[in-house]
Structure formats: C-alpha cells, structure tokens
Specification:
InterPro entries: F420H2_quin_Rdtase (IPR004378), Split_barrel_FMN-bd (IPR012349)
Helix content: 25-40%
Protein name: Nitroreductase family deazaflavin-dependent oxidoreductase
Organism: Catenulispora subtropica
Order of helices and strands: HHHEEEEHEEHHE
Shape: globular
Family: Belongs to the F420H(2)-dependent quinone reductase family.
Strand content: 25-35%
CATH superfamily: Electron Transport, Fmn-binding Protein, Chain A
CATH topology: Pnp Oxidase, Chain A
Number of strands: 7
Catalytic activity: oxidized coenzyme F420-(gamma-L-Glu)(n) + a quinol + H(+) = reduced coenzyme F420-(gamma-L-Glu)(n) + a quinone
Largest sheet: 7 strands, antiparallel
C-alpha cells in the first residue's frame, strides 16, 4: 500500500470530518460500483484494501440488504468490522447478522454463502491487529464510537 492514493486515503480515513462526510456517500457509491462490476471494482480498488459485498437479511423487513465492507482474509473466512464510521450505534448490517448469522459475500464476482460469528477475547484482538493494519481508521472509529465495536468472521457455510 505504498501508492500515493493509498497514503492519502489512509490519512483522510482517520479524520472525523472524513467519516462524517463520506458515511452517507461512500457506501452508496461502493454498492453501485460493486453491483455494476460484479464485486470487482470499488472506491478503494487499487489501494491494496479489499472490499466485499455483504448481503444480509433485514431483521425487521426480511428483505435482502447489501453493503460494501473492507475485509481481511482469515483461515478461509473474512473478517469485517462493525465500526459504522465511528457512530455511537451499531451498523444495521451488524444487527442483521446478530439476528440471523446467515449471509452471502460477493468477492471479485463470486458469491459465497457464509455464517457470521462475533470474535471475542484473544481471537478478536488478533483480528483487530490485522484489520487496523488494513485500515488504521478503525482505531479512531472505535474511540469515537464509545461502544464495543463488533468484529465478525464470515466463515464458509
């Protein structure tokens, strides 16, 4: 991740104004790009930060909900973080997974069924170290959120 775009994104991603401004825009743009390209192109494509599309079942609506998320690979699964850009409440997708851990991930055009599990203790800490290397802003988001930020592993179903 040494290209100039990556360095700029890393710096900006840690700023509160960036999270506040882009939390309402970036997910929509990423969802559109991801769907239009079959999960192959996202805003951060080219920065070395992988993005997947996560499809959950809405806990209230029962409707499918799709959101783009950064991820880290781990033992055949994918680690994702419920930081919600540092907001005080959990993201809807995380609450959906807590209600029904069955989901689908789309990575580079391939959809795969997964089952979510919240990481805890040492397992969570090891995963946190990995994801904060991928996106250092998670440390800032967790501090601003003032809550426990869930870290999930999405394992093949």
């Amino acid at each position: 991740m040494t290209n100039p775009w990556s360095a700029v994104v890393t710096r900006l991603g840690r700023k509160q104004w960036f999270a506040t401004t882009f939390k309402g825009v970036a997910p929509h743009v990423d969802r559109f790009l991801g769907r239009a390209t079959g999960g192959r192109v996202f805003i951060l494509t080219g920065t070395g930060r992988p993005t997947l599309l996560l499809t959950t079942t809405g806990r209230k609506s029962g409707q499918e909900r799709t959101v783009p998320l950064l991820y880290a690979e781990r033992g055949g699964g994918y680690v994702v973080v419920g930081s919600n850009w540092g907001q005080h409440h959990h993201p809807a997708w995380a609450l959906n997974l807590l209600a029904d851990p069955r989901a689908t991930v789309t990575i580079r055009g391939k959809a795969k069924p997964v089952r979510a599990r919240v990481l805890e203790g040492d397992e969570r800490e090891r995963a946190w170290t990995t994801v904060t290397k991928l996106w250092p802003g998670y440390d800032d988001y967790a501090e601003r959120a003032g809550r426990d930020v869930n870290v999930f592993v999405l394992e093949p179903a």
